[in-house]
Amino acid sequence: MPFKNDQSRISFTPGRKHFALLLDPDNLTEVSCLSLLTLSEAHPVDFFFVGGSLITSQNQAGIIRLLKQHSNVPVILFPSSHQHIDPQADGILLLSLISGRNPEFLIGQHVLAAPILKASALKVYPTGYMLIDTGRQTTASYMSGTMPIPYDKPAIAACTAMAGELLGLQYMYLDGGSGAMRPVSAEMIRAVREAVDLPMIVGGGIDTVEKAAAALEAGADVIVIGNHIEKNPGFLAEVSSLVASYNVALDVHR
Ligand code: 1GP
């Protein structure tokens, strides 16, 4: 495991765009995971995010083991509870669900997670997590018992992000939820981009290159894609080259 806990490998690089592939352990087999690993060798991915709002299988540890055995891409946990912390990973999004008002996901799970994280070598990313209403109730919103931010209210997202930044959170994640009918709007991404000076992660419902480009253009630093790559693994190559072309263009203009 050459890059295990090598923290320099798992930072977001300011001024660059990143692509995170979300791997939901419930939707993967060893075979499908290996085939995504092969694809990600030819078409670079910056991070593997592993997790989901509801995990019903016992696959997560095996999937992370496989990723660490076959790839140097950092594995970042995207957990729904402290029970999904796995020290085999490189890092963890310590999500504070600031779009909601459920204390369990604002501080409760964090109290349970804290001693485990302190004793581990996982890199912790303190992240303000905002669920956005993209048209239908998502697993994340139902399972967290929270109301998402209305789709057409960018000012609420911006003020929520500002509050998260003032509270000391270091990353923002705008999520329309896995398999969302439409992604978070460019207008909302831009509003959050202008409101806070933090790396911004955007995901949920990105299923075309155009939607991925719109999120990057509006200010996302990291785009997260899960669902559409599970259904159509070839999409991984398209997103990888889109993100690479953005980074080439950014280098040229530097
Ligand atoms: C969900 O942001 C992620 O939490 C990714 O969403 O599965 O729709 O790509 P998709």
Provide an overview of this structure:
This protein has one domain (18-249): TIM Barrel (Alpha-Beta Barrel). Helices cover 40% and strands 17% of the residues. It has helices spanning 30-42, 60-70, 103-118, 139-144, 154-166, 186-195, 209-218, 227-231, 235-252, and strands at residues 18-23, 47-51, 75-78, 91-96, 123-131, 171-175, 200-203, 222-225. The chain has an eight-stranded parallel barrel, surrounded by six helices. Helix 1 packs parallel to helix 2. It is globular and about 40 Å long. The termini are far apart.
Model regions low in confidence, pLDDT < 50 over at least 5 residues: 1-6
Mean pLDDT across every amino acid position = 94
Number of helices: 9
Class per helix and strand makeup: alpha/beta
Biggest beta sheet attributes? 8 strands, parallel, barrel
Domain unit count: 1
CATH class placement: Alpha Beta
The CATH architecture category equals: Alpha-Beta Barrel
> What share of residues are in beta strands?
15-25%
Helix percentage = 40-55%
What separation lies between the terminal Cα atoms?
A: 35 Å
From the alpha-carbon coordinates, what is the Rg to the nearest angstrom? 17 Å
- Number of DSSP E strands: 8
Q: Write down the secondary-structure element order.
A: EHEHEEHEHHEHEHEHH
- Under CATH, the topology can be stated as TIM Barrel
Described by the principal axes of the CA atoms, the overall outline is: globular
CATH superfamily: FMN-linked oxidoreductases
Protein name: Geranylgeranylglyceryl phosphate synthase
Keywords: Lipid biosynthesis, Lipid metabolism, Magnesium, Metal-binding, Phospholipid biosynthesis, Phospholipid metabolism, Transferase
Function: Prenyltransferase that catalyzes the transfer of the geranylgeranyl moiety of geranylgeranyl diphosphate (GGPP) to the C3 hydroxyl of sn-glycerol-1-phosphate (G1P).
Pfam family, one: PcrB
